[in-house]
Design goal:
The complex is a heterodimer. Chain A is mainly alpha-helical. Chain A has helices spanning 2-41, 57-67, 78-95, 122-143, 147-178, 183-189, 200-213, 225-228, 238-263, 274-295, 301-330, and strands spanning 105-107, 110-112. The longest helix of chain A is centred in the N-terminal third of the chain and has 40 residues, at 2-41. The radius of gyration of chain B is 21 Å and the shape is globular. Classes of the chains: A mainly alpha, B mainly alpha. The A-B interface holds A 77, 80, 119-121, 124-125, 127-128, 131-132, 134-135, 138-139, 141-142, 150, 153-154, 157-158, 160-161, 164, 179-181 and B 29, 33, 36, 52-53, 55-57, 59-60, 63-65, 68-69, 71-72, 75-76, 124, 126-128.
Chain lengths: 331, 172
């Protein structure tokens, strides 16, 4: 009994370590991939000084951020100012806990599920955390005691609560098809075909909303450089800015992971090992997001709100109705 | 006291303390943040009582959506913090009377409840069971509530519309 408990605990710790290390490492190199790919899209070279092909650039950036002075502006709300970047990074990391990253592994006669925790409300867990991530942005902007920070924080809060609705509504058809909130069950339900085949509309709505949630171009109004300096993280320096930055890239990977498990069949795929398939799918989603960033200009604020409230949400609601109608007809 | 019982009392204490701090802050943003902590504690207590779905919804709706709106409004509108007195003197007496009544009734209820000494166990109600129960037994209330929310939505839309009449040049 005690031994069993200890073994389970050990497995959990190992899984946590591997997933955390993987997320951090890939997030760091995603920055490199983004800079390289974006540079190529704009016919530039991108980072190419630190190491071969600039491969050591992420390491150099980490050293730079860690050694920079950590400033707190005068008149800032110190406690909130210090804690806000951590909220953004933590919520992004913890979200990955419910994403299954491979088929079950059997080791010494024990079946080890390849997921940190299989919650029966897995999908809602992701939403709960993504809705808490807003506070990092809003409070960080407010606590800076700077008008650019405040405006960025307000924009971030408005944008994220608007797109959370379409994000959630677009996934209801998936839950209806899989009959479960658990992400492990949803991946199992895609054994014969990935859900993107039957739910292309939900996929498109989810992708647009996910890009808006991670505040990337064309939805980067909370940090629009040409009007708000850097928005909610204007006043941040050193590793605290680094945490916002890290949070954004981990968010990209988490959304890539969620798109993969909900629409692209998760770790399922022929020939290659299962976790590699998930990694490839995450990378493809991330590359798509970078490609979009290199292609589209920033939206105007009213366009942003119009797309969210007058296009995505009604279409998502219609999609739910259509899925329900087809489901009733089939059964 | 069992381990789970201890955890419950810690969570309950944090929730009550956060709420108490929230209603005594003069800085509105601080008050909002403590209220979020309080909702978070409530969500964890729901999880303890075997209602993970309710816990998730508490975080998503209350801590994640409603409080963001509060924060949004507090950040947008510069709220003057109240002066030295949190409450004017003539409001103290009714507030104290009502508070005392609630306190007495709460204590009476706690002492009268039977089975309060039963040990706390970890339960799980799956979202499916919960949904089936609610939709089979309380479908009428759910329809009424959804209708009410729809009406509120339309009302809000109407309020927002009448602000900018066409031709006044406000909408650009």
């Amino acid at each position: 009994m005690m031994l069993n408990w200890l073994a389970g605990f050990l497995v959990l710790i190992i899984k946590l370590t591997v997933v955390l290390f993987f997320l951090l490492f890939v997030a760091a190199y995603l920055v490199w991939v983004e800079r390289k790919f974006l540079a190529r899209l704009q016919i530039r070279y991108g980072p190419n000084r630190a190491g071969k092909f600039g491969l050591l650039q992420p390491l150099a950036d980490v050293v730079k951020m860690l050694t920079k002075e950590d400033t707190v502006p005068d008149g800032a709300d110190k406690a909130f100012f210090l804690i806000a970047p951590a909220i953004v990074a933590t919520t992004a990391f913890v979200m990955f806990a419910v994403v299954p990253f491979g088929s079950d592994l059997t080791l010494f006669g024990r079946k080890i599920p390849m997921v940190v925790t299989d919650l029966n409300i897995g999908l809602l867990f992701v939403f709960a955390l993504s809705s808490l991530g807003v506070y990092g942005v809003a409070l960080g902007g407010w606590a800076s005691n700077s008008k650019y920070g405040l405006l960025g924080g307000i924009r971030g809060a408005a944008q994220m609560i608007s797109y959370e609705l379409s994000l959630g509504l677009s996934l209801i058809p998936i839950i209806m098809l899989a009959h479960s909130f658990s992400i492990v069950d949803i991946v199992d339900a895609q054994a014969s075909y990935p859900f993107i085949v039957v739910q292309p509309v939900a996929f498109i709505i989810f992708m647009i909303s996910a890009m808006a949630e991670s505040k990337r171009i064309p939805f980067d109004l909370p940090e629009a450089e040409n009007e708000l300096v850097a928005g909610y993280h204007t006043e941040y320096s050193g590793m605290r800015f680094g945490l916002f930055f890290l949070g954004e890239y981990v968010n990209m990977m988490v959304f890539g992971g969620i798109v993969s498990v909900l629409f692209l069949g998760g770790w399922r795929g022929p020939f290659l090992p299962s976790f590699l398939w998930l990694f490839i799918k995450i990378l493809l989603v991330a590359l798509f997001m970078i490609w979009v960033r290199g292609t589209l200009p920033r939206l105007r604020y009213d366009q942003l709100m119009t797309i969210g409230w007058k296009v995505l949400i009604p279409v998502a609601l219609l999609n739910i109705l259509a899925t329900a109608a087809v489901g009733v007809m089939i059964h | 006291m069992t381990f789970l019982g201890l955890l419950f009392y810690i969570l309950a204490a944090v929730t009550v303390a956060a709420t108490a701090v929230a209603i005594t802050r003069r800085n509105m943003v601080h008050a909002v943040v403590y209220l979020i902590v309080s909702f978070f504690g409530t969500a964890m207590i729901f999880y303890f009582f075997g209602a993970p779905l309710l816990a998730a919804l508490e975080v998503i709706i209350y801590a994640g959506a409603i409080m963001v709106l509060f924060l949004f409004v507090v950040m947008m509108v510069k709220v003057d913090s109240p002066g030295e007195d949190l409450l004017p003197a003539r409001q103290w007496i009714p507030a104290a009377v009502f508070g005392l009544i609630y306190l007495v009734i709460a204590f009476l209820m706690i002492f009268e409840t039977r089975g309060a000494d039963a040990p706390l166990g970890l339960l799980i109600a799956s979202p499916r069971d919960f949904a089936l129960y609610v939709l089979q037994n309380h479908w009428f209330s759910i329809e009424v509530i959804s209708l009410l929310l729809l009406l509120a939505l339309i009302g809000a839309l109407q309020l927002g519309k009448s602000q900018t009449k066409p031709g006044t040049g406000d909408e650009t």
